[in-house]
Amino acid sequence: MDILGTLADTVSGGVFGLLGHVATKVAGIFESEQQFKQKLAEWAHENELLKLQMQAKAAETENEVEVAAATGAWSGLSESLKAETAIGNSYPWVNAVRALVRPALTFGLALFLCSAFFALPAGDDTRAYVANSLVFAAVTAIVWWFGDRAPRRAPH
Q1: 50: how many CB neighbours lie within 10 A of its CB?
Q2: CB-side exposure of 155: number of CA atoms within 13 Å?
């Protein structure tokens, strides 16, 4: 019986060792799958963060372009007003034509933008852009038109 008991212990020990080995491998596979899922979640999160950073940079760049455009527009307006005041008076008909240029340009710009606005279908993104352009052009024209008409201070 000792030999039979030793043989039984050997076989049962081998079977339990094999089962332990298989259980360890299965647990390792499950753990690897969990680690891979965790890595995928981390990569997706990092990818989302990178997308958000790119969107933020794009918005920042777009804002910088708009600021630069507005700054350039105001600089141009300022130089235009300086040039206008430097001309002085001339013949009456020249003064009349020169006085009509601004209203004609203002009216023509407004007419053009309004026709473009109403030609586009409602809800179109381009229509919103044209509306923004209309507001910008109207404010610019009003400031340009009336900015030069401000009462002048008498020199002391």
Answers
A1: 10
A2: 0
Q: Do the beta carbons of residue 112 and residue 155 sit within 8 Å?
A: no
Residue whose entry in the numeric block shows the structure tokens 């019986």: 1
Secondary structure letter of residue 123 according to DSSP: T
Residue 124 CA, chain-centre distance (Å), reads 18
What's the sign of the alpha-carbon dihedral 106, 112, 114, 116? negative
Give the count of beta carbons closer than 10 Å to the beta carbon of residue 93.
8
Ordered by start, the domain boundaries in the chain are 1-88, 90-156
User: Is residue 120 a contact partner of residue 130, using CB atoms and an 8 Å limit?
Assistant: yes
pLDDT tens digits, 105-124:
878 877 887 888 788 888 88
Q: What is the pLDDT of residues 77-87, one digit of tens each?
A: 677 767 766 66
Q: Using CA atoms in the order 120, 122, 127, 132, what is the torsion angle rounded to 10 degrees?
A: 140
What's the chain's Rg over C-alpha atoms?
39
> Nearest to residue 139, comparing CAs of 113, 121, 120?
113
- Name every residue whose Cβ is closer than 8 Å to that of residue 133 and which is 6 or more positions away in sequence: 113
